[in-house]
Design goal:
The complex is a heterodimer of chains A (393) and B (332). Chain A is an alpha+beta fold. In chain A, 53% of the residues lie in helices and 13% in strands. The radius of gyration of chain A is 31 Å and the shape is flat. Chain A starts with 32 loop residues before the first helix and ends with a helix. Chain B is mainly α and 332 residues long. In chain B, strand 1 and strand 2 form a beta hairpin. The radius of gyration of chain B is 24 Å and the shape is globular. The chains are: A alpha+beta (393), B mainly alpha (332).
């Protein structure tokens, strides 16, 4: 049927032509296989496709997932228990791992350390003793710990050689291994953001949802409150709120207190987003239909309206997590947040408050590195998610 | 225009009232007050606290009266210029705060100025050279500025200043000048110290400002009026300055209202790390010892600072954009 038909000379009648193929009325607007996939894909699949194109966001997401997975097994990953003190190795500089000794391959090992006391400034100096070789062990028995505070265990991924030391990031003023403490600290620092954002998420959805749906006086009140809370300088208020937590509280209670404080100050942005979305959606036909069928307010809001922009909300929540992590770090850094025995990156940085100490023992500010990496990753991930959740891009 | 300004100022009053009530509640929340802490501390040192003095102070500041009455005493005192009494320093709050507050305002003001001066050209450059290497680089630096918290930046800055240049960069002036009357030498000393905290505190705000200007200008650059202007043969520079830039100027001014709270709170933390002679370290100390009037007054001052800053940006916006002063209310 696609044979080229030679045109008859002008003026001559056209020859009769019948197409032999089966007539398909939808031939013109038929979708290709690829197009069909797009049209049939669910909302989530579409988001995933769009998200996948953001290389940086995907990398950040994987990075964060690895970190969050690591907090499940911190005890196993850390070479030492975060509380074990090594009184002979106070403020040791980071040790390096060697592979060759005297030009001969030995596998990963550390040299022994000898310490001398500088009588001028009472600073301990450590030097490598190249006579002693301690090969690093893998899947080995080391410091005892209680896995998640429940089961006794002593299995580690890596341990120093028998009788040797392996302080890859140095030790602090009590001779505790910095690397192990950073690994343990991730557990607190990373979860505080998640719990805090859950608090603010719940507050934001409920308050913003009711304000947007009911409107009127309640809406006005909520609007003004949001304006007031947003005009307050957050960090001084955080300080004030965490200063009022009684010192008699147990560290775990303080931990939850801080998450609530962080959440209490952060819900305004989400509430605003929820409110404006609801205002535009509540006049839609499907809402009227639900109301006519006798659905109550909570059902209409949370069953029919909120799922409509949930993905958008999750994306904005992701962007808010870094400020929570920073809040905890700042509070603990100033000594108003978490207190030792609990270890978070902020608590570790508390030791680095004094610049003179930092100049002498620069490895004490190393917890800055994971803080910045996590915050950057969350920013990239949030940007990617937001773009993916936006149907108009 | 006058009506618009009057309305904005009227809206400010309930905002400040709610803020003060909120702060007062926060200050009242601790289960113990300063006197109990004081008596307990004295007892711990084996001394007996002067109970008659405690009773006198309690009476003087109305601690025996109900909460509402105390709140009104506190707020009305603010209007009269009586900011309460710092129990720890044993002098009126206004004397303790004095110069520190002025310095806080100075630091915040210079920070905003720096944010504007730096962010504006960078934002324009990034928008007009979208997806160039310079754009990527500047965006990344801006993101770093947002991501790295002020106090950590201060710490890192101090460390490298010390290691590379052997400088100690703490403080806002040489200690000898503090609480001295102002003279030229003091001004010079302040100016020499000022740029470091301003740079550190402004980093985050500048980063977010650049991002916002870039996004805003990119939106404007696609609009038809700009395309028309270019199509009619206006040189690109002139077309840019005459149309889209003016539009994004609005936003530029209004954004300061969003950045200001973070600048003020960031400066508090940075001040603690760099031991600036601003309100930060004092606020921290007051909170730790539950010196309630001092801490409360600080918090209220800081909130006033932000509220007034937002007011100024709103008024500027009213001048720039007739739509706003006719409708009333903010752009968002």
């Amino acid at each position: 049927m696609n044979q080229p038909v030679s045109l008859p000379p002008s003026g001559a009648p056209l020859s009769h032509f019948i197409a032999e193929g089966v007539f398909d009325p939808h031939q013109a607007d038929k979708l290709t296989k690829a197009q069909e996939r797009v049209y049939l894909a669910s909302q989530l699949t579409l988001m995933w496709w769009k998200f996948r194109k953001h290389r940086l966001a995907v990398i950040s997401g994987v990075f964060l997932m690895v970190l969050y997975a690591s907090i499940l097994i911190s005890e196993f990953l850390a070479p030492y228990n975060y509380q074990s003190r090594h009184t002979d190795f106070i403020r040791t500089p980071p040790q390096s791992v060697h592979l060759f000794h005297d030009g001969r391959f030995v596998g990963p090992f550390t040299y022994g350390l000898t310490s001398t006391l500088d009588m001028n400034n009472l600073k301990r100096n450590y030097s490598e003793n190249t006579q002693q070789i301690f090969p690093i062990r893998f899947f080995c028995r080391g410091d005892g710990y209680r896995f998640w505070g429940m089961f006794e265990g002593d299995l580690h991924l890596v341990c120093p050689g028998e009788g040797g030391t392996m302080f890859l990031l140095g030790t602090d003023r009590l001779g505790r291994d910095m690397l192990s403490r950073i690994i343990y600290g991730a557990r607190i620092s990373l979860t505080i953001g998640l719990i805090g954002i859950s608090v603010s998420f719940a507050l934001g959805i409920v308050i913003g949802g009711l304000a947007g749906y009911y409107g009127g006086l309640f809406d006005l009140l909520v609007q003004r409150t949001i304006e007031v809370v947003q005009s307050l300088p957050t960090i001084p208020l955080w300080l004030a709120l965490s200063a009022i937590m009684p010192p008699s509280w147990s560290p775990i209670l303080v931990y939850f207190g801080i998450t609530v404080i962080l959440g209490l100050m952060d819900w305004t942005g989400l509430a605003r987003a929820v409110r404006s979305k609801l205002l535009s959606l509540r006049e839609d036909d499907y809402v009227v239909a639900a109301q006519l069928m006798g659905a109550g307010t909570p059902r209409v809001v949370f069953r029919h309206l909120v799922p409509g922009f949930m993905s958008h909300l999750i994306a904005s929540a992701t962007i808010a997590i870094p400020s929570m992590i920073l809040g905890e770090t700042a509070l603990s850094f100033l000594g108003l947040g978490l207190r030792p025995p609990i270890t978070s990156w902020g608590v570790m940085l508390n030791e680095a408050q004094n610049i003179n100490i930092v100049v002498l023992y620069p490895w004490l500010i190393l917890p800055v590195v994971p803080v910045i990496a996590v915050i950057l990753a969350f920013n990239f991930l949030g940007d990617g998610l937001r773009d993916a959740a936006d149907p108009y891009r | 225009m006058l009506r618009y300004i009057a309305r904005r100022i009227l809206i400010m009053i309930p905002t400040l009232l709610i803020t003060s009530a909120l702060i007062f509640t926060v200050m009242q929340l601790p289960p113990s007050d300063y006197f109990e802490t004081y008596v307990a501390e004295m007892a711990a040192q084996g001394e007996k606290a002067d109970m008659s003095r405690v009773e006198f102070l309690k009476k003087e500041y109305g601690f025996d009266k109900p909460l509402i009455e105390r709140y009104f005493l506190w707020v009305t005192g603010f209007v009269r210029g009586d900011f309460g009494y710092s129990f720890e320093y044993e002098m009126p709050v206004s004397d303790v705060v004095g110069e520190r507050l002025a310095l806080t305002v100075l630091v915040s003001f210079c920070t905003i100025l720096m944010t504007w001066i730096v962010a504006f050209p960078i934002g324009i450059y990034s928008a007009t050279h979208q997806y160039s290497w310079a754009d990527y680089g500047l965006t990344f630096i801006g993101l770093l500025g947002i991501a790295v918290p002020h106090f950590l930046l201060a710490l890192i800055f101090m460390y490298f200043a010390n290691v590379w240049f052997g400088l100690s960069i703490g403080g806002l002036m040489d200690p000898i000048y503090f609480n001295q009357p102002w003279n030229w030498a003091k001004v010079q000393s302040v100016l020499a110290h000022l740029w470091i905290p301003v740079l550190i505190i402004g980093a985050g705000g500048t980063g977010s400002m650049v991002r916002a200007i870039r996004a805003n200008l990119l939106d404007e650059l696609q609009k038809q009026y700009y395309v028309t202007a270019k199509a009619k043969g206006l040189p690109p520079g002139k077309a840019l300055v005459k149309y889209p830039l003016r539009m994004s100027l609005n936003f530029f001014v209004s954004h300061i209202g969003d950045v200001l709270p973070s600048i003020v709170s960031g400066s508090e933390l940075t001040a603690v790390v760099l031991s600036l002679q601003t309100t930060g370290p004092l606020l921290l100390r007051a909170l730790q010892s539950q010196d309630m009037y001092l801490a409360g007054s600080f918090l209220l001052f800081l909130s006033c600072l932000t509220v007034v800053g937002v007011l100024i940006s709103d008024i500027l916006l009213g001048f720039l954009d007739p739509r706003i002063r006719l409708q009333g209310g903010r752009t968002k």
